[in-house]
Amino acid sequence: MQESEFKKLVQSSLEDLPEHIAKHLDNVAVTVAQEPNGHQLKKLGTRKGGILLGLYEGIPKTIWGRGFGNNLPDKITIFQKSIEMFAKTPQQIETIARNTVWHEIAHHFGYNDEGIKQLERKKQSGA
Questions:
Q1: How many angstroms separate the CA atoms of 34 and 4, rounded?
Q2: Structure pTM?
């Protein structure tokens, strides 16, 4: 998939967020990169060649408070090549990218990986 198409897909994923989530999404930049750089992998303790679909870097909204002014926006990076490694069709790329955007946004709202898994189970059950 062309990088420009992938960026549109990520943008569409953001535009399709439910209103109750989108209206609270602030001070965060969402970007696309081909793959994580060495600094990003090292920061997470992932070895070179490790797979990382997306990365949230910042201060979650649950921690944000007094004394946190003048900070750069949080950053969510979605890694195109990593996602494409798992997908065999354009539809799979879209599904994985949308799920990755959702996952990283959950980190922005203060959820850890276990909390995100619980949210995903709830979402899948239709609750």
A1: 12
A2: 0.86
Structural domain count, the chain = 1
- Which residues constitute the domain of residue 35? 3-125
**β-strands 74-79, 28-33 pairing:** parallel
| Rounded Cα–Cα distance for residues 117 and 123 (Å) | 10
Residue type, 115: G
Lowest-confidence segment of 30-34, 49-53, 65-69, 109-113 by average pLDDT: 65-69
What are the pLDDT digits (tens) for 51-81? 889 999 988 877 766 556 667 789 999 999 9
Domain at 76, CATH number: 3.30.2010.20
